[in-house]
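To: structure subgroup
Subject: Chain for Friday's discussion

All,

I'm putting the inputs and outputs inline so they're searchable in the archive.
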Amino acid sequence: MANPKDDPEYDKYCDPDNPVKIKFEDILEAARRMTGLVTKTQCLRAHMSEKLEMEVYMKQEILQYTGCFKERGVRNTMLLLTDDQKRNGVVTASAGNHGAALSNNASQLGVPNIIVMPLKAPCTKIANVERYGGNKILYGNNMAEAKRHAMTIAKEKKMLYINGFDHPHIIEGQGTVGIEIIEQVPNVDAVLVPCGGGSLLAGVAVAVKHLKPDVEVYLRRSGQCYAATSVRKHAARCRTWASRVALTAGPRTIRRDVVGVESEKTRSMTESLKKNERIFLPMEFSIADGLAVNKVGVNTFHTLNNAGLLTKMVVVPEDWVARAIMHVTEEEKFNVEGAGAVGMAALMCGLLPNLKGKRVVVVISGGNIDTTTLGRALDRGMAAEGRLVKFKVGVWDKPGGLAELCSRLTSIGVTIRDCVPERTCGCCITRNIYSVQCKIIAETRGWDHTKQMVDLIKKHYKEYLFQDLNGKAEKTTTKKRGPCLAPNPICMQ
């Protein structure tokens, strides 16, 4: 039987036969080791708290030097390198954030480094690796291919391969986020953590559950709570037998929830925990590209599985991630990437109704969003909330016809983002020669305002096509027409 250590992808720090369970003492040592070397990011109350009906605090890891929590794990790992490892250098595979953090720290310490990135990595993150002094190599169509190439390079050049989401020192560094959360919001009820490979989730879960374990309490009729260890003392003070029974009738547990959050296209940890084993999950393009890990880490899975650390995993639809990016940009006044927005998305779309009225910390893991992706997310988010509407309307093709349409939309406060008249397309051949179809993209204030605009179009125009409030196409024409003579027989669609 072949020796598994001969496999190019064998990593002694992430060995399935010898997984490492992360301990709080190691996370605490990492926090002491990195004091003053990484940013202690703020954890401020979100403006969206009232809307979400809970006290929401945002742990803003976007304030790290490279714009992401990855700075913590990389700094801790680099501080623990031996002299030989520093001399030979380090190599990793990354879609962006881990590579940028490794480039920055290795360059500061004068350590040779190679960052292998998939060909389809976001342009902004590729540029970040270059800016921080990384020696980048673009290889493979996905992270799995990039990782295999990086590990092959590591063995050929005797460099240290640093797994960005599973190296024990990486996980320990990420766990310092949990220590800071408890320091900044000591009475927290739940912590929502994005999950890709699992290093941030595992580290935070270990720290939070150690510092704020579940507490078993007994409830008295007055509503006052007592810790289980002090029940006998309080029961002895009760004057009547009935009061003692009311006090000791049944314990309840006050939980400090740690919730992992993934998008619907990056749910590798959710599926692995369901099947009680690490599985390979093919990845599609996702707005949360920082979470796109095909197979979760050996050590992260071993730490989280059956350890009582994780309350649950939730999976967020991709469109809600776009909406979360939009709302954080508008209401909290900072940019966040898709991976960092999944926690807010989980609250917005109602996946955690049990947190209503509670104190919740959401880890905003990163802000390195590609400008093109940001524009798309804002547009998709506005469209999903009825604030960006696309429709078609037939107007009189005479001087003043289009101006009249613009004037009517302006009168109710609608902004026209785009307008394209179509006079010669196939679907217009059989129409009145003095009629022109206009494709409109309009910006409104929301569904009520959109409904007002739709009513106005229906009132003044006889031909139109738009999506109604239920998302179904509604089409009206002046009269029944004959068969379409155009090559494309679907008119106005």
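Points worth raising on Friday:
The chain is about 40% helix and 20% strand.
The CA atoms of residues 83 and 89 lie 10 Å apart.

D.
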